[in-house]
Write a structure and sequence with these properties.
The protein is α+β, with helices and mostly antiparallel strands. It is built from 21 helices and 28 strands. 41% of the residues are buried.
């Protein structure tokens, strides 16, 4: 049975979205690659009257968190607490309608993970063994997989990670990398033995292959990837790590280790569902979605997560037993930005914390983002395309039809729009709309979301065409009864649009239905019924305004500038410079042969410095820390190739170097360790 047919029969749906790491801020690729399509489908399930819950959360354990926290100089808990709120605020603003958005740092997740592991251990799917893992002598730690980089042994990609090559998609172990290096310091790690626990995936290979093969409704991209891993033969997979932040292993001899993030993260789907059950007051409610075989489970994720969600996680579920496997794994491709891969470090992309600062409604972003959902291949955010789609399709087509219909009804039929005898043209339009509703349902049942929104645009286009051909602005003068019927037909089309938009543009859907004096929670049955014979509308307002070139330029400057992580923690970002840039700086040892206070200034001292025959003048703000007598005759370190600058009317040609305490109160000048001649260069 095809996926859409199974969906129509199902009464219960569990929608799961890949858990984002809390080591960065979401960008447009994060949204269109999982959160938005999952939300759109969950909203559609609600529209169809299914019992559905939409579950997600943040992935807070493991190496990505521990390393990012170290780089920022904060604790892993502080990092996760802060970025969880950043993520949730963004998803809430974009109307991502999670029934529960949890965290893998919560006690309920740690408890669920340990219980899950215990079940696998008792079922005989866990083994013990030793591994030679990369150990960085410089950093004094075992390096997590993704903090070992090197050349992929399969495709030659130079920046492959120790867990996966993002170029060819193969799962890797760090020791497989060629020319491996520590991502933190760049040194070459050495292999060091340490004991670990393993998941014996080979024991579930046959069941996995049968399950994957039976899922003919999966998109070909996801299915072929999954079968590719199976055909290569599954090996045991290490599920523990030498880290301090994460879920502790509940097994004697392994108390100092935590679970591999890709072992505990998908268990977060279950722990988040359990948390939801507690919130609704029925702690057993989670079992309706995880243990009832009639429930269909849909996973939404990026293509780099496909191996984990089609092999690793299902293998864990099979080993556990009595838990539902995914019904559909919607593996999505990547979204790029203006011809290149999105990169926060390079400031290349659209960054979602900035969207909330724009004066553009979230539904406008949702509209364009829907067309960026990479269902069949990589997509690309382009500002020219954003402007065109919003102005032409959203404003010029859909919003134009709804507003012209409602404003006309309000202006000429304040007491109500009455249905008269329907003409052949009227019936023809309503039949076209009915066929489009079927097309919409077929697309959405099969999780073809972009196609679903395209159908809604076709309906509004047909409505605009009908409005133009019937010319109600003329009929209102010559045949008001006929005019009323034409407007009544158009109001019915507006109602259909209002209902079908709910999964995509929830706020806009509610507005349209409110103008028709209809409740916001109309169901799927209502899309097939017509309005009452007399419809009283409310005064409408413009749904959207066109984007101007000036506004696009303002948006570009705003949303393409990522907020440095340091700012979320009240820290200043330490800007990196290349070695080539650093080499331009000339530092030399100079002897102060003359020093005096600058008249009129309490802080400034004028220094005459000898650099071995060449003398230069410096103006330094040291007057509150040093007297001229304390400096004269002594040697210090200076930067000698700065551009000249006039300070208090005196030309300063070089700069003395000093260390300043964090509170800014203590100053220490840099002096050479031993006596060297003036003019010696600092290398």
């Amino acid at each position: 049975m095809k996926g859409g047919e199974r969906f129509r029969e199902a009464k219960r749906i569990l929608v799961l979205c890949a858990l984002p790491y809390t080591n960065n801020v979401p960008h447009v690729g994060t949204i269109v690659g999982s959160h938005l399509p999952a939300d759109t489908f969950a909203r559609y399930c609600r529209l169809k009257g299914k019992e559905v819950i939409f579950i997600g959360g943040t992935d807070e354990n493991g190496a990505p968190t521990e390393i990012t926290a170290r780089e920022l100089g904060v604790s892993p808990k502080e990092l996760c607490d802060t970025l969880y709120e950043v993520h949730k605020k963004i998803y809430d603003w974009l109307k991502i309608s999670y029934d529960n958005f949890s965290r893998t740092s919560k006690p309920i997740h740690h408890e669920t993970t340990r219980e899950f592991f215990q079940r696998l251990y008792e079922n005989g799917y866990i083994s013990e063994g030793e591994l030679e893992l990369p150990y960085c002598e410089n950093c004094k730690l075992f390096l997590p997989d993704r903090y070992v980089e090197g050349k992929c042994p399969y495709c030659g990609y130079e920046a492959a990670r120790g867990d996966q090559c993002e170029n060819c998609g193969r799962l890797l172990d760090p020791h497989e990398l060629l020319e491996a290096r520590c991502k933190l310091c760049g040194s070459s790690p050495k292999l060091k033995k340490t004991k670990h626990l393993f998941l014996e995936l080979s024991k579930v290979q046959r069941e996995l292959e049968e399950w994957i093969t039976s899922n003919e409704h999966w998109n070909e991209f996801t299915r072929s990837w999954a079968l590719g891993w199976i055909k290569e033969g599954l090996k045991r997979r290490c599920i523990t790590r030498d880290l301090t932040w994460g879920v502790r292993v509940p097994l004697e001899g392994y108390e100092d280790k935590v679970f591999y993030v890709w072992f505990d993260a998908p268990i977060g789907y279950i722990s988040s569902t359990k948390e939801w059950a507690k919130k609704v007051g029925d702690e057993k409610a989670w079992e309706r979605f995880w243990k009832d075989e009639s429930c269909l489970v849909y996973n939404f994720l990026g293509k780099d997560n496909i191996p984990f969600h089609t092999v690793f996680w299902p293998g864990m579920l099979i080993a556990h037993g009595n838990l539902n496997l995914p019904f559909d794994v919607i593996g999505l491709h990547y979204c790029n930005y203006e011809g290149r891969k999105i990169s926060k470090s390079k400031g290349w992309g659209v960054f979602c914390d900035k969207l909330m600062e724009s004066d553009v409604n979230s539904d406008v972003w949702r509209f364009y983002f829907t067309f960026l959902i990479p269902e069949t291949g990589d997509t690309e955010f382009r500002w020219s395309d954003f402007e065109r789609r919003v102005n032409t399709e959203l404003v010029g087509n859909l919003a134009n039809f709804v507003y012209r219909t409602l404003s006309f009804a309000w202006k000429y039929f304040r007491e109500g729009v009455k249905k008269g005898k329907l003409s052949e043209e009227d019936e023809g339009l309503l039949k076209k709309v009915a066929r489009e509703i079927e097309a919409y349902e077929h697309a959405m049942d099969n999780v073809r979301l972009r196609e679903g929104l395209t159908v809604v645009l076709r309906i509004s286009s047909e409505g605009n065409k009908y409005f133009q051909e019937e010319e109600p602005w003329k009929l209102v003068e010559s045949d008001k009864e006929r005019c009323s019927t034409v407007v009544w037909v158009c109001l019915n089309v507006c109602k259909v649009i209002g209902i079908l938009l709910r999964p995509f543009l929830p706020e806009t859907s509610e507005k349209i239905l409110s103008y028709l004096n209809l409740p916001p929670d109309l169901g799927w049955r209502d899309v097939h019924t017509t309005l009452e014979d007399k419809v009283v509308t409310k005064e409408p307002k413009l749904l959207f305004e066109k984007l101007t070139d000036e506004k696009i330029e303002r948006l570009k400057k705003l949303v393409t500038k990522p907020t440095p992580l340091e700012e979320f923690f009240g820290k200043e970002k330490e800007e990196r410079v290349s070695f080539e840039e650093f080499k331009k700086i000339r530092m030399r040892v100079g002897k102060v042969v003359g020093a005096e206070r600058v008249k009129g200034s309490r802080k400034l001292l004028r220094l005459l410095v000898d650099f071995g025959g060449k003398r230069m003048q410096a103006v330094a703000g040291l007057g509150e820390c040093y007297s001229p007598e304390e400096l004269e005759g002594k040697k210090f370190v200076f930067v000698t190739n700065l551009e000249k600058k006039r300070i208090f009317g005196i030309e300063s040609e070089c700069m003395i170097l000093a260390a300043v305490s964090k509170d800014g109160k203590k100053v220490s000048l840099l002096v050479p360790e031993s006596d060297v001649e003036e003019g010696s260069e600092i290398l």
